[in-house]
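Example 3.
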Amino acid sequence: MPKVTYLQYDGTPHEVEVPAGNSVMEGATANLVPGIDADCGGACACATCHVVVTGEWADKVGQPSDIEDQMLDVVFERKPTSRLSCQIKVDDQLDGLVVQLPEMQG
Amino acid sequence: MTFADIDKLADAFDHASPEQMNDPYPMYEAFRRQCPMGRSSQHGGFNFVARYETVKKLFEDFSTFSSSEGVGIPPHPFEMFPIDLDPPLQAKYRRILNTRFTVEAVAAKGERIESVIDGLIDGFIERGEADLAADLVRPLLPAIVLPLLGVPYEDQPKMSAWIEYLTRGRATDMEGVMKAGQDIGMYLMQRVAQRREMPKEDDVLGLLLESFIDGEPFTDEQIYRTLLIILFGGLDTTSAVMLESLYFLARNPDEKQKLLSGERDWKTAIEEFVRFTSPIQGLRRTAKKETELEGKAIKPGDWIFGLHGSANRDEAIFPEAGRCLLDRSPNPHLAFGAGAHICLGRNLARLEIELMLRAVLTRLGDYQVAGEFAPEYLVGEARGMKSLPVSFTPGKRLAAAA
């Protein structure tokens, strides 16, 4: 099963297994990883599951859609590789993905 | 239950009708089975959806189903923010407001909430009887929510009267509703203007006075429209769950014991009370583009009313959906809504309900509801019990008599 590592803002890593087809957000909430609120449940509607994709993973993860791009304007301190984790579907290509959590959500 | 003429039932469906909504659940079941998207001719005509998955989709897909033309039927005559906005603008409001309603932020209010509850119980505990609606639940919510917002508590009676009118009067007296809307608007606008001249205070109004959206400070009107929806959301809906829970526990005294002894997990039980009550029975969206729901065509501009009350009784998701099972888990109910507009105050509501039930079970735990009592409901988008008369062994006040 693909593994995803969530780095807390202070650098603490949480490595969890996320079934292919689930989102990076679902991987966090299912494993009680702190720092992902996901108020809207994955509808790309609340901007409270913000992550910053690290290093070379950015190309593999790809670009946000137009709607996600608009929602990302709402987050605290958007970075060039910021994404909403509910919109990143995990697959074998993303096995080993590392995402950084922001200082705060929403 | 199967209805022979389902189209006729759908055509007449009116969530503002006390006859239909005192017990809407058999009707909802018929809708889910026989016409998961129906068409009512009431209130100018609207579609409604009854199944869980469809209701969830309606509330999640904001780019197809918009809130920007209002969410009530009949429409509220004035806009409220952020409930009448779509993302991303809606999320900018929520980003600011959410900070006041996180689990941690509301937990800090716990002691104050407990003292308000104990004070209200002191008011009737020596009598051995009470109407838990009039004596406890209805006065409790404004005492918590008004100070949280920045509305002086002494203005509670007129505030509650206005809100009640705006919630219930739209189907019957739109002129009166307009008047109540103007009155509450004038009151809140004055309050905002006063507060701009006063020292900073730590409440939602104070927060909004210092907040910006897209670099612009909030105008008085934006603040008033934001306070108004929190008032709507904060009073009526939580009362409904409290009364339904109290009624259920009166009829199921073994569950009182299980909660008190810790055999039942409070958090799990409260989610079930919330699902079972579904205080918001339905809300509207307006289609922005051509689409389909339940295999039927939707045109831009069509109204679709999503029935939370029906979704939460959908057997496809909730086995024995008509029973209140306090250990139900998982419980992915839609009572707080779904998607961008999920209830802002849900963490506060959960805390208020738990603290109220704990206090009642501790202080008047043997309370009973008369055998012949049958609940009657106030109806509309929000549905809640009118009264809950109980009797119990008289107890002692906690505070010295004034």
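The helical segments of chain A are 24-30, 57-61, 66-72. The interface with chain B takes residues 39-41, 43, 45-48, 67, 70-71, 73-74, 76, 106 of chain A (CB under 8 Å).
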